[in-house]
Specification:
The chain is α/β, with parallel strands linked by helices. The chain is 33% helix and 23% strand. α1 packs parallel to α6. The radius of gyration is 17 Å and the shape is globular. The chain binds 5-O-phosphono-beta-D-ribofuranosylamine.
C-alpha cells in the first residue's frame, strides 16, 4: 500500500502482558507511526493483560482460544478461525508481540510476507545455530519459548532481541532488526527479561515505523 489517505492497518497478536503492544499504541498516539492504525488485537489467552490495554484505547480486541493444542485438526481449525478474524480487518501488517503459539502455513499462507515476530534473543541472518556479537563473541542462536532463562543458564555474556519476518520455520525468517543486551552479574530471568523488553519496546516501534514508511511489510 502506498502512502495515501487510507491508513496502514496493523493487527497485533499477543498472549500476555502486552507491553510491546503498549509501546506501539503509545507510538501511534504520539504520531510516530505515520498514518498507521492498530485496528485489532487478538489473544489466545483470556487473561492476557494486553486485551485490556487494547480496550482502553478503543481498539477491537478478541480472545480466540486454542482448546486442544495437541490435536492437529483442532489446531488447524483454530488457525483458520484466527486467520478469518484477522482477515476481516484487512491488515497490512501483523505483529506477533509475545504471541506464544507457532503459526503454520494454514495461517501464514493467508498473509504472505505480512507477519513479523519479536524474539527475546539474538538470531543470525543465515538461520544458523550461532550468532557472532558486535565484539566477535560466538554465542548459540537461542530458539524456543525459554530463551531468556537459557541465556542465563548457559552463562552467556550477552543476549538481546530480534525482529524478523515469520516463515513456517520457528524463530527464523529474514531479520529486520536486532539489538544486543548484556547479561549482568546477578541477573535472573526476570531482571534480564525486563531489560530486554525495554530495548524491544524501542526496536518494535522503529521497525513498524520503517515498514509503514516503506508502505509494505
Ligand atoms: C517479549 O519479550 C517478546 O519478545 C516475547 O514475549 C515477550 C512479550 O512481552 N516473545 P509483552 O507481552 O509485550 O510484555
Amino acid at each position: 500500500m502506498s502512502a495515501s489517505a487510507q491508513p496502514y492497518q496493523i493487527a497485533v497478536l499477543i498472549s500476555g502482558s502486552g507491553s510491546n503492544l503498549q509501546a506501539l499504541l503509545d507510538a501511534q498516539q504520539a504520531g510516530d507511526l505515520g498514518n498507521a492504525e492498530i485496528v485489532l488485537v487478538v489473544s489466545d489467552r483470556a487473561d492476557a493483560y494486553g486485551l485490556q490495554r487494547a480496550l482502553k484505547r478503543r481498539v477491537a480486541a478478541a480472545f480466540i482460544p486454542l482448546r486442544h493444542p495437541r490435536d492437529p485438526a483442532a489446531r488447524a481449525a483454530w488457525e483458520r478461525r484466527l486467520a478469518d478474524v484477522v482477515a476481516a480487518f484487512a491488515p497490512d501488517l501483523i505483529v506477533l508481540a509475545g504471541f506464544m503459539r507457532v503459526l503454520s502455513p494454514v495461517f501464514l499462507d493467508r498473509f504472505p510476507d505480512r507477519v513479523i515476530n519479536q524474539h527475546p534473543a539474538l538470531l543470525p541472518d543465515d538461520g544458523g545455530d550461532t550468532f557472532v556479537t558486535s565484539r566477535g563473541i560466538v554465542i548459540p542462536a537461542l530458539r524456543g519459548a525459554h530463551v531468556v532463562a537459557d541465556a542465563i543458564r548457559l552463562g552467556l555474556p550477552v543476549t538481546g532481541c530480534t525482529i524478523h519476518r515469520v516463515t513456517p520455520a520457528v524463530d527464523d525468517g529474514p531479520v529486520l532488526a536486532r539489538a544486543e543486551v548484556p547479561v549482568l552479574p546477578g541477573d535472573d530471568e526476570a531482571t534480564l527479561h525486563e531489560r530486554i523488553k525495554d530495548v524491544e519496546h524501542r526496536l518494535i516501534v522503529e521497525v513498524v515505523a520503517r515498514l509503514v514508511r516503506e508502505g509494505r511489510q
